[in-house]
Design brief:
transferase activity; RHH_dom; Ribbon-helix-helix fold; Aryl-sulfate sulfotransferase; alpha+beta
Length: about 80
Amino acid sequence: MSPVEKRSVTIRGHRTSYSLEKPFYDDLVAIAAARNLTLAALVAEIDETRPRDANLSSALRLFVLDWAKNNAGGRA
């Protein structure tokens, strides 16, 4: 398993951090590119829609999982 790496991002002028394993981070980067967004813009979008009782790292992982399920070539 890939170690968790801490990363920083600025969302709406506020500096914050999240921790993700490399496969989740790589998929997040790919999703942002596929949607013609910067990584920061995608993270901000996910942050805006997450439940306030969920932490950002968990919300990012769940977003990647949901994206993978919905884009599994019709298998999901």
